[in-house]
Amino acid sequence: MVGDSINNTYCFVEFEDATEDSIFISKGRSTSDWSPRFEHGFSQIIDWFWKIDDFKNTSLSRSIFGSENIEIYGILVIGRDAFISDIDKARLEWRLNKVVVDSHKVICITFDQLARDTRDRLLLYQSIKPTQSQDKQDISTDESDRTSL
Which of 101, 51, 54, 57 is nearest to 76 (CA)? Predict the structure, then answer.
């Protein structure tokens, strides 16, 4: 779990494996089945949501989160892009956009998407230039500049 205690927003992240049948398994039909691994990871997030919902009105919850009103999200990281057909990518995207659990969004992404998102964020931070005052911090090493107490 990662969170922002100032904004009372928390995210539960579940990592599963990245094998060929992590998200979908072929049963010889035109439509692949959701894999047991995917369903396990998704169910884990649902269980965390249930536990938070069950816990949220307790004094312990208020002392941990500082509020009864917290916003939670779930992220399931599973599989690789190369193992997903175009139609299954559309199904995964549809599930990402349409399925909510008790009004909470569950995001399902591949390890490849996680790597792209991380790279993009890092590039964004690298493009932020320091302000002129931050860029030119003068540090005096001259002993005469120091005053004694």
Answer: 101
